[in-house]
Amino acid sequence: MKNQLRYCSMAISAVAVIITTAVLAHTPPVEAQSGEDAHDSRIDIGLQIGPVPLNLNGKDRLLVGLGSYFVNAVAACNDCHSAGPATQYVPGGNPFFGQPTKINPATYLGGGRDFGPLTTAPGSPHIVARNLTPDRTGLPVGGRSFSEFQEIFRTGVDLDHLHPPCSAGQTANCLPPPFDGNLLQIMPWYAFQSMTERDLRAIYEYLSAVPCIEGPPAPSVLHNDCQ
C-alpha cells in the first residue's frame, strides 16, 4: 500500500510538472513597462517650469506635464508666440539682462510678434505669430481640433489662409514664388512633423490648459473669445 501511495504521489507530481511546463510554454512573456507608462522625469520638469496657472480640470495631468516640457524646455514656443521681446518678460525677469527668467503671463503664447515681410515687394504681408491659447471652447489655437492641430504640425498648412499664393486674381496680401502661401512660413513645422502622435497630443493637452489670451479685437486672427 505504501508503495502504491508513493507511486501515485510521484505520478501526480510528474503530471503537475508537465502541466506547468506546458502552460508556461504557451503563456506570452510579460512585456516590460512601456516608455509611455513608465515614470518620465520630463513630466515633473514640465509641471515645475510652466510659467502660468494651468487648468487641469478634465485634462490628463501627465500629458500636460510632458507637453509643457516640449513647449517650454525644448521648443521655446513663447519666444515666437508672444507679442515680442519688449513684453515677453516682466520687468526684472529678462534672462538676457542677467536677471532670473520670469515670463510675462499677460502675453504668454498669445501671439502678435511681427516678423516683418518676407520680400521687399510693395504690399508684401507681414508674418505675425498666431495666438496658441484656447478660446472659450477650451480648444487651443483659437478652437482647433486635435486633427487640425496635427495636420498643421505634419504638413505646415496655414488653415487661416492669411497670405495665399499670389495669382492673377490675388495680387494683394499674398506671397509670390518661390514662397508657398499655403504653408506657414516662419513656424518650423518641418522640424516637428516627425514627432509621435503622443508627443503632439501632449503639446495639444498643455496648450488646452494654459489661460486664454483675448488678443486684439475681432476680426483679427489673433482674437480669442475667452468668455
Order of helices and strands: HHHHEEHHHH
Shape, principal axes of CA atoms: globular
Give me the side-by-side strand order of the main sheet.
1-2
Low-confidence parts: 1-34
Percentage beta strand: under 5%
Number of H- or I-type helical stretches: 8
Q: State the helical fraction.
A: 25-40%
Number of domains: 1
How confident is the prediction overall: mean pLDDT? 87
Give the biggest beta sheet.
Answer: 2 strands, antiparallel
- Roughly how many Å is the radius of gyration? 27 Å
Tally of extended strands?
2
| CA distance, first residue to last residue | 88 Å
The structure class reads mainly alpha
Account of the protein in words:
This protein has 227 residues and is mainly alpha-helical. The chain has one domain. The chain has 8 helices and 2 strands. The chain has helices spanning 2-26, 41-49, 61-74, 85-88, 140-143, 146-155, 189-192, 197-209; strands at residues 114-117, 126-128. A two-stranded antiparallel sheet has the order 1-2. A hairpin with an 8-residue loop joins strand 1 and strand 2. The longest helix has 25 residues, at 2-26. The relative contact order is 0.14. Mean pLDDT is 87; it is low at 1-34.
Question: Could you name the key traits of this structure?
Answer:
227 residues, two-stranded antiparallel ribbon, 3% strand, 8 helices, 37% helix, mainly alpha, disordered N terminus
Concise overview:
The chain has 227 residues and is mainly α.
Could you outline the blueprint of secondary structure elements for this entry?
Layout (H helix, E strand, L loop, with lengths): L1 H25 L14 H9 L11 H14 L10 H4 L25 E4 L8 E3 L11 H4 L2 H10 L33 H4 L4 H13 L18
Antiparallel strand pairs: 1-2
Helix pairs in contact: 2-3, 3-8, 6-8
